[in-house]
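Lab notes, practical 5.
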Amino acid sequence: MIDAYSHLERELTIAKSDHLDQLNSRRMWQDKAQVAEGRLKESRDSAFDESLIKQGAAGGGEAANRLLDNVRRYIQQYDGTHWKIIVRIYANLEGLLKKYAYIGFTEEERALRQFVTGFTQSQPLFDFVDAGQGKERADHKIKEHLGLFLSNVQCKHVMLGVAHDNGYVPALDPYKNNPGTASRISLLRPIRTGWEFQGLPFEFVQFDSSIFRTEELPNDRPSYANLTKTNPSFRPPIPLPTPSNHKPAKAIKDLVMRRPIYPGPIYLNKDEERVDEPLGTVSAKAEARLDARIQHSGKLCNEFNLRGDCLNPRCPYAHEPALEGEELVVFALKARQTACGTGSRCRFRLCVLGHQCPNQRSRGSACPRAHTCYFKKLHQVDPQIDHEHGEFSTL
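Output from the prediction step:
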């Protein structure tokens, strides 16, 4: 009897010790981790203001600071002065780049990645995450993180930037009838609110108009006249001959005596693989002139010569005078000697890199570099043009 009592007493002492450890641990984390918001935003509707994106890294940092100030003002109503603020933005960057290229937002397109870097680096708990191709990837991350944050008692509030998309309503349904949880959720007011969000018990929040766009991105490609009007440095290409006859260009002057070469059409073979626009042949004299220019001026800027302009004020490469005619063609062919990382799946209209082996005339034909060729993974790509790619993924 005495032994049994002693055993129970020891177990009680151990249980008390474990309980005190857990209590102290919980109090410590409550002091350290008073998390205010897991702000989960999908960058499709409430895109950042273009004036910020054009500034690159500096604009990204400014956007993060403005966002932080707006969130801090909002959480004052919850006495959240000392809350830590976490921001998570999930987007399909490649899709957004293609969207910008398609609608003629050339400055935003070139500055976007720097903008993302500046945004992420400006605040220790801010992250702008490239979720990859396809809307579903960003959706999946946002929904999973929503459940994770709301199940964490240390998370005081969650703000979502998804009210433009009715597809998120089912993910919010489990929380709308729970007053305790519903009061912890707010929705960032989008440009256009999805009709299924009407009547939900979540508060809508309107931030300063200096952070996000106040109008939706256009869906149509602008005319070259409008591009030139809004961007005087843009030099439109001449129309290209249709590839319907599957024959290469007869003369360079009919095809690429223009500047810039990009953006241009995306050509696909019968297997829906990207193949490069034929640029014809060039003379040895043109190659010699370009080599002499590079030796005299240094490396030339791809952005300026192939895409029309360069937005990097600290660009280390040479610009003026702009390349024209055969020298421009030689320069474009040199750029294509570097293989595109996306290969034949690339659908980026401004890509200046190669999408097929330049040493092959037909699928599987002999390449002098064989297994040492940088394009060896593309040796089975049929270089014969079949049709032009006509679909432009927005996100």
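Observations recorded by the TA: The first helix runs from residue 2 to 32. The chain is about 35% helix and 10% strand.
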